[in-house]
Amino acid sequence: MTQDPASMLATYTLTLSCPNRPGIVAAIATTLFEADGNITEAQQFDDVETGLFFMRVVFSCRADAERTEWLRARLDAVAARFRISWTLHDRAQRRRVLLMVSKFDHCLVDLLYRWRIGELPMTPTAIVANHPRDTYAHIDMGDIPFHYLPVAQDTKAAQEERLWSLVQQTNSELVVLARYMQVLSDSLSARLSGQCINIHHSFLPGFKGARPYHQAHARGVKLIGATAHYVTADLDEGPIIEQDVERVSHFDTPDDLVRKGRDIERRVLARAVRYHLDDRVILNGHKTVVFGD
Amino acid sequence: MTQDPASMLATYTLTLSCPNRPGIVAAIATTLFEADGNITEAQQFDDVETGLFFMRVVFSCRADAERTEWLRARLDAVAARFRISWTLHDRAQRRRVLLMVSKFDHCLVDLLYRWRIGELPMTPTAIVANHPRDTYAHIDMGDIPFHYLPVAQDTKAAQEERLWSLVQQTNSELVVLARYMQVLSDSLSARLSGQCINIHHSFLPGFKGARPYHQAHARGVKLIGATAHYVTADLDEGPIIEQDVERVSHFDTPDDLVRKGRDIERRVLARAVRYHLDDRVILNGHKTVVFGD
Amino acid sequence: MTQDPASMLATYTLTLSCPNRPGIVAAIATTLFEADGNITEAQQFDDVETGLFFMRVVFSCRADAERTEWLRARLDAVAARFRISWTLHDRAQRRRVLLMVSKFDHCLVDLLYRWRIGELPMTPTAIVANHPRDTYAHIDMGDIPFHYLPVAQDTKAAQEERLWSLVQQTNSELVVLARYMQVLSDSLSARLSGQCINIHHSFLPGFKGARPYHQAHARGVKLIGATAHYVTADLDEGPIIEQDVERVSHFDTPDDLVRKGRDIERRVLARAVRYHLDDRVILNGHKTVVFGD
Amino acid sequence: MTQDPASMLATYTLTLSCPNRPGIVAAIATTLFEADGNITEAQQFDDVETGLFFMRVVFSCRADAERTEWLRARLDAVAARFRISWTLHDRAQRRRVLLMVSKFDHCLVDLLYRWRIGELPMTPTAIVANHPRDTYAHIDMGDIPFHYLPVAQDTKAAQEERLWSLVQQTNSELVVLARYMQVLSDSLSARLSGQCINIHHSFLPGFKGARPYHQAHARGVKLIGATAHYVTADLDEGPIIEQDVERVSHFDTPDDLVRKGRDIERRVLARAVRYHLDDRVILNGHKTVVFGD
């Protein structure tokens, strides 16, 4: 799609962040211009509170290795001058994504469907579950390897080592916790920092502890929601990528809340994963900058 | 509107709650039928968890005192049999409502406008503020008496006594805290229980303490919301009547959140007040049953 | 679920409509009370414009054939008196549903998933497509028979006859057009009236003709939506059951609109089917009464 | 707010559109850098269908006349090279806005309130109505001149001439039709092209002719909406700036739809006016590019 065999054009996404000062945009735009790049999308954000500057640029240019190497060298030079952190992705290269799931598979089924019809530009590297394969009998996993990694209190450290090995062996760039109900340890969370997306319910007001939909029902809330966020060592409190809500009423039983919650969870997670795959999310301390579409 | 001079029909709203058991609906419907009443709206809810039953009925019948007295006596008899709590309101009689405000007047202005164009069937009895009249110079309060009741830490008890006297003198049936930023004491909250509606911001996750919109901004939330609830002794935690949210992004400054918050607050409070005035809200322990339209 | 083996209780949904006049609710409630029925949900609507009255009642009572026969006889008697059309469904009996699909299978996949996890109380009787089985290679259809009924201009009448036979042979009570892109003939639409749900895109303003998402894009709309409705002879104009929208912007290409459209279509269709299966929808001329949850 | 007396910094918004080709961003960014400008917001959009490029840049730089003149000359030179249409606004200069209203004043009241509390950075130059001043007795118009310009079929041309004179005499840069129910003539619409915002209801499907809320009610729609757009000679069909919807049900009477419609209309119009005042809207043929916040 992003490779045009005739002209050998490739499309790239460049993201960057740095302390804000005059000249950054000019320097970047000039660099891309000198590389014969044509900017097709650009979004910027200047965080006046932290003094940080964020930018996402989509551009096309000739797809030969020499050109790309030259461009990377030039970007390095600009980056050194402005203390820029940057990433450059060829949009034709799909990210490698490891999917994790527990008993409830609505998010997994949804992500696989969106991947299959071409909506999520990723390569699933593995499906990891803490339940055996037959729990998901009705899911066509195609060629994606399935790994059953059960977890018990005294085997948790070992299970996480196997999981981490799997991430490395499969060269997975992103881990999606598609309703994986085990809390990751602080050390694994730290290793996966900014590379692991989780989904959880959220309510107004919030509820701690078990059976949150039942708590929300007991409180009589009129809205229920879900939040997708990056995993950090601090459970359920990582940088928020996306949120959404749905209306509920006194007619809704706790089961109805769970049902409506499923719908919110899958669409919020799918949006967050798509934003990540499309390099639309940049970390800004405990927050995110999301250049939406 | 609800009085037809020709046939002298009046329209009533009956609300009731009681322990659920067979025969309630039949008993009520038969009673109204015997009073020559014609049911035009009816909503019921059976809370299977608490075993309580809730009902709201709108009906019209001949508007003479004798008939009404007879009907009330019959409803008393049915109520005794089923341990029903009930209220019966002639829909032509507007509720008397006392409005309270602090510095931010967007909810007050909105409620007065909706009242003026006939959207809120109420009679404002007083506007009470802890700021002087000229704070609201641009608001046309018409004939509604304005009361400046300033409050300081050591005068709070006295101020609340004056407020309570005002509620009684004006026969106010409902107090609306239209962004009145003083916390009511537990004793006044108890006196006003179920008769006082408050509006406050709400977020996913929630934030305690001062400058909540700034906290929400610091956390990077993607949605902000507002909750209208009945006041109880337990601050900001009374039974929820209505909630709504709006989407925000990293572009939104704390001031933008406050601006969007104003829009949500005024529409959520207006809906909650309208539901109350239309007898659509019935208390169910710490929750509400809201028979929406 | 709705059968309690100990007490042999069954749960029923009664829906009815009739010209409004006093006494209907009392007559129905008394009848159910005499059958030892316990009403757990009841919703009513009085259409003051047409003078019609609509009611949905969920109740439980002893599950023996004699009792049910007696109840049906009594309901017949009440119905005769008030000119009531009514239906009574044992909630333990799942509706038989025939699903139709064309090339785009997102709605079909979604409905099957919701059925599998118990969200949609139905029995799929057949999946009918105008594309061969391998178009849907990744869909686990379980035991549901698949029928490939291709259609061409000169075979349309014959294809519809086969379809109609299938509906009858399978005793299907509902046909769901899950993005079945063939227009049904007027005669088949008439046969399926009130028993066939369709989903289509909708926009503000509306667009006629081919490639509607492209037309909407060309017009620069800021919202796109979908409508689920009963099929009538009048294409895309049957009684509306449910609608929803999503926000779009100038950044969205026609393909993005199609992608967002898929999300709206599947959730709007799923809600409409659930409302139908739960006897929440009653026809009111060219409109519907939907007793939502 | 945008003037800092110490450093004499001013903040500007630059908007531009032109045929897309490489080098535009670099040229603009370099020009602003050479003017010692600091870019704080920048948004771009490349319309691949039309080949047009759109950009909005907010930047601050030293506020002296010489510097500004130099910058404008440089921008002219860049514009000539790339065939750019551009505008440059000092954000401290409020736009002059003429407000028009008919009988229903909910949008006018809302706009005035938002202006008064500082939410809309504009200077109202006049309020023009086709009803006399006492129709709006409860509205505090402060110092804004009120003009009663009644209109009848044979006086329409004359009335529009008076209106146009008023626009010119008051140097109004924007006309807001805040539920002004008279259709502007093609010639006046052409004169005001891109400078006049209108608000009207919108439905799925759409309805032509009188009493649209009644038509929508008769059709049984489940959503009602409103659209804000620039006025063109083609009634109700100008480039769309903003849209929103609200959910309705069979319980809603036509009057309820009108009430809900008021809420949607006022918030959609307020957003559209704010976007315009903040230079967030750029015309793109029959569409708009809206760089939202």
In short:
The structure is a homotetramer of 293-residue chains. Chain A has helices at residues 24-34, 65-82, 106-116, 156-169, 186-191, 212-219, 254-277; strands at 9-19, 38-47, 52-62, 85-90, 95-101, 122-129, 146-148, 174-177, 196-203, 223-230, 240-247, 281-284, 287-290.
Note down, in words, how this protein is organized.
The structure is a homotetramer of 293-residue chains. Chain A has 2 domains: 5-90, 2-Layer Sandwich (Alpha-Beta Plaits); 95-290, Rossmann fold (3-Layer(aba) Sandwich). Chain A has helices at residues 24-34, 65-82, 106-116, 156-169, 186-191, 212-219, 254-277; strands at 9-19, 38-47, 52-62, 85-90, 95-101, 122-129, 146-148, 174-177, 196-203, 223-230, 240-247, 281-284, 287-290. The radius of gyration of chain A is 21 Å and the shape is globular. The first copy, chain A, contains 7 helices and 13 strands. The model of chain A is unreliable at 1-6 (pLDDT under 50). In chain A, helix 1 packs antiparallel against helix 2. In chain A, strand 12 (281-284) and strand 13 form a beta hairpin. In chain A, strands 7-6-5-8-9-10-11 form a 7-stranded mixed sheet, with helices on both faces. In chain A, strands 2-3-1-4 form a 4-stranded antiparallel sheet, covered by helices on one side. A two-stranded antiparallel ribbon of chain A has the order 12-13. Chain A has 293 residues and is an alpha/beta fold. In chain A, 46% of the residues are buried. The longest helix of chain A is centred in the C-terminal third of the chain and has 24 residues, at 254-277. The B-D interface holds B 41, 106, 109, 113, 116-117, 119, 138-140, 142, 249, 251-252, 256, 259, 263, 267, 293 and D 41, 106, 109, 113, 116-117, 119, 138-140, 142, 249, 251-252, 256, 259, 263, 267, 293.
